[in-house]
From TrEMBL:
Belongs to the CCDC90 family. Keywords: Coiled coil, Membrane, Mitochondrion, Transmembrane, Transmembrane helix. One of its GO terms (biological process) is calcium import into the mitochondrion. The lineage of its organism: Eukaryota, Metazoa, Chordata, Craniata, Vertebrata. InterPro entries: CCDC90-like. The keyword Nucleus does not apply. PANTHER family: MITOCHONDRIAL CALCIUM UNIPORTER REGULATOR 1 (PTHR14360:SF11), PROTEIN FMP32, MITOCHONDRIAL (PTHR14360). The gene is Mcur1. This is MCUR1 regulator. It comes from Oxylabes madagascariensis (white-throated Oxylabes). Its main location: mitochondrion. GO terms for cellular component: mitochondrial inner membrane.
Amino acid sequence: RRLYFDTHALVCLLEENGFTTQQSEVIVSALVKIMNTNLDMIYKDMVTKVQQEIALQQVMSHIGGVKKDMIILEKSEFSALRSENEKIKLELQQIKKQVTDEITKVRADNKLNLNLEKSRVKELVSFGYHAQQDRALTQTDRKIDTEVADLKTMLESHKLDNIKYLAG
């Protein structure tokens, strides 16, 4: 280690100011020991360039590994989302088919009810019950209107469900 001051000049300066040679040398020796101890403490906390390069290479290696892991994870997540999307599409097609079947059933039931009501009205007309005929016709119209409104409501509900899914 190098000291950045002249120890002999310091001894001479102390002697000129009233210290003996032995006292001056002891003081300078103590100062050198203190400075060496302080430098040792400072050097313990420092790293060399080689150590710094090694640490930098290790960090860069870890970052590269993390990048690879992230890419693999991203690809696996994407494929999982794709397969889940396909499952949902199949479920949506099944639901659409069920809705179509239900609508067909309701239409057939309504036609059957309508035909039954028509035949009943015809019977009433043939017996000359005009008042009953009017009431029956009104009830039939109400039933038809109710069934049509129910069908429209069900259709709109299923449309909204499909739109919600597609929008999601």
